[in-house]
Design goal:
single chain; alpha+beta; Metal Transport, Frataxin, Chain A
Length: 65
């Protein structure tokens, strides 16, 4: 699946995303896992100041607004 299709899929339904799927998508967009504690995973990318912080809640990614 193309990056634009993945992005649109996530954007259209952000409350129903599997945690592992979201982590794989971050890696496809060039982010690198930096670890995390407990149910959290943190990703970074050169040239991007913000970190991605994902939380696993029973296999689903916790949605934030």
């Amino acid at each position: 699946m193309k990056k634009t299709e993945l992005y649109q899929q996530l954007k259209s339904n952000p409350k129903n995303v599997r945690f592992e799927h979201l982590c794989r998508i971050a890696e496809q967009f060039g982010f690198t896992g930096r670890g995390g504690k407990g149910s959290h995973r943190i990703y970074s990318k050169a040239g991007v100041r913000e970190l991605l912080n994902f939380q696993d809640v029973e296999g689903m990614a916790k949605p934030y607004r």
